[in-house]
Automatic annotation (TrEMBL):
Highest classification ranks of the organism: Bacteria, Bacillati, Bacillota, Bacilli, Bacillales
SMART domains: CoA_trans (SM00882)
UniProt keywords, alphabetically: Transferase
One of the Pfam families matching this protein, by short name: CoA_trans
Keyword Hydrolase set for record: no
Superkingdom field: Bacteria
Family: Belongs to the 3-oxoacid CoA-transferase family.
Protein name in the entry: Propionate CoA-transferase
Signal sequence bounds: none
């Protein structure tokens, strides 16, 4: 039994007009760049394949590559995904009604592959209820073109409780990436920085009689791979593409070609991980970390949380007092940020994407730190659509709906705000032109009413004010030193919060250069 080896251009020719194609990756990690480029080139030169449906669980781009290669009107008729924050061309196409666009929660999509793989008609879950994913709200439809089309989910009742039911999506082609393939087509991932949901996506495609295309960095003799390292058995792989230019088209992540400390084969000295300079994002992260306690398992979302909190934990020497996790499946370590979201140095464990979501959807993480765009008087949060920019939900809904405590991290205003730190206080030089505290969010990514009904702990941390979700609504519980309560906080809100009778001033230690004593704070009895 030997695998069929092809060049990327030949593999691109296997995709037919109108087929449903799924790709597996997160940011640019796992993106089969050579194959994706070849599909784009073929379309631009021949007009084929056309009118395909593109299915992807996580966002897969670095603002330039990944599934951005598919962002051409005519190539894709419908996109079903979770996140486009690093995909400006896709956000533009969605906003301008150039494609049918559905957003589904990232974890539900990763797990839907698994449900489809074992022959089920779809996936049942509480995740999505009461948010814009709910078919009674928006049904995850991201533009006017999609509004009149069929729903991809429905509400069902089981044992007197409501659930979302995400319907199966028959797949024709699955495009994956591994590190090594042997001559039989067995695929390993030893140099990849995430495990992702590769096997469930492959098996879901096989369930519908589809084709699997795997891009690899190199080819080994059959029988030389450790069977425990094989992620996809060769019997499920139709075509193997050995990347001809791995430095460009098979990078471990966008910012570098390969670093063994991100794939778990090397640990770097902790002292080599440099602390961040104190700025507004680090300040918000520091205050947010007051919400954890010793022994907590925490999650980091994109934006401020992933970019600063792991680094702060390393600087404060508290990495042994709690466990950081990220939706990609990593445990511990210091996370890369920005366009390299989802990976980390010196991690302790790495599980698959769909398995990680089992934990977030079931047990629920102790504390999740998430970015946010808008907060309203009901405690609803919008983190998925800002004006014409439809970033999508990613893992936001999966994680926040089931976390025991949710800590939103955001600047108080945006676009043009200038803030500095002097004399242990906040100094607002220029106010942002866009308010984040609004009377009604433009899209419900997190349902404050449902959170209040179930007694979920919710904190909203900004550089100048901290809010807490209480039974009666949104309560202001802290302000930063140097901030005028009326002018800098209340006048900048479109709704009137409940002001705590015990309104506190933030700890001045937050302004300190170097470690600010978080370890001592966490370990207090």
């Amino acid at each position: 039994m030997k695998a069929q080896f092809m060049k990327a251009e030949e593999a691109a020719g296997l995709i037919k007009d109108g087929e449903t194609v799924t790709t597996v990756g997160m940011t640019l990690v796992g993106a089969a760049e050579a194959v994706l480029k070849a599909i784009e080139t073929r379309y631009l030169e021949t007009g084929h394949p056309k009118d395909i449906t593109l299915v992807h669980s996580a966002g897969q781009s670095d603002r330039k590559d990944g599934i951005q290669h598919f962002a051409h009107e005519g190539l894709v008729k419908r996109i079903i995904g979770s996140h486009w924050g690093l995909q400006p061309r896709w956000m533009d196409m969605i906003a301008n009604n150039k494609v049918e666009a559905y957003c589904l929660p990232q974890g539900q999509m990763a797990q839907l592959y698994r449900s489809m793989a074992c022959g089920l008609p779809g996936k049942m879950s509480k995740v999505g209820l009461g948010t814009f994913i709910d078919p009674r709200v928006e049904g995850g439809k991201m533009n006017n073109r999609t509004e009149p089309l069929e729903d991809l989910s429905e509400i069902i009742e089981y044992d007197n409780e409501e659930y979302m039911f995400y319907k199966k999506i028959p797949l024709d082609v699955c495009i994956i990436r591994g590190t090594t393939a042997d001559e039989m087509g067995n695929i390993t991932m030893e140099e990849e920085a995430m495990k992702l949901e590769v096997l469930p996506a492959v098996l879901a495609t096989k369930r519908f009689g589809g084709k699997v295309i795997a891009q690899v960095k190199r080819v080994a003799q059959t029988g030389t791979l450790n069977p425990k390292d094989v992620v996809v058995p060769g019997v499920f792989v139709d075509v193997v593409v050995e990347c001809e230019n791995p430095f460009e088209d098979h990078r471990q992540t966008s910012s570098w070609y390969f670093d063994p400390s991100y794939s778990g084969s090397l640990r770097v000295p902790q002292t080599s991980i440099k602390p961040l300079e104190l700025n507004i994002r680090k300040f918000i992260g520091r205050r947010a970390m007051y919400e954890i306690k010793k022994g907590d398992i925490i999650n980091l979302g994109t934006g401020i949380p992933n970019d600063v909190i792991g680094n702060i934990a390393n600087e404060e020497g508290i990495s042994d007092e709690m466990m950081i996790t990220v939706e990609s499946g990593i445990y511990g370590g210091v996370q890369a940020g920005g366009i390299d979201f989802g990976i980390g140095q010196n991690v302790y464990a790495m599980i698959s994407h769909d398995q990680q979501m089992d934990y977030y959807n079931g047990t629920g993480v102790d504390v999740t730190f998430m970015g946010a765009g808008e907060l309203d008087r009901e405690g609803n949060v919008n983190a998925t659509k800002m004006g014409p920019l439809c970033t999508g939900s990613g893992g936001f809904i999966d994680i926040t709906q089931n976390a025991k405590k949710v800590v939103f991290c955001a600047t108080f205003s945006t676009r043009g705000a200038k803030i500095n730190f002097e004399n242990n206080q906040i100094n607002i030089e220029q106010e942002g032109s866009i308010k984040k505290m609004v009377s009604k969010v433009s899209q419900i990514s997190f349902n404050g009413k449902l959170a209040r009904e179930k007694g979920q702990q919710v904190i909203f941390v900004t550089e100048r004010a901290v809010f807490k979700l209480v039974k009666e609504g949104v309560m202001l519980i802290e302000i930063a030193p140097g901030v005028d309560l009326q002018k800098d906080v209340l006048d900048m809100m479109d709704f009137e919060p409940i002001v705590s009778r015990d309104l506190k001033v933030m700890d001045v230690e937050l302004f300190k250069d170097g470690p600010f004593g978080l370890r001592d704070f966490m370990t207090k009895e």
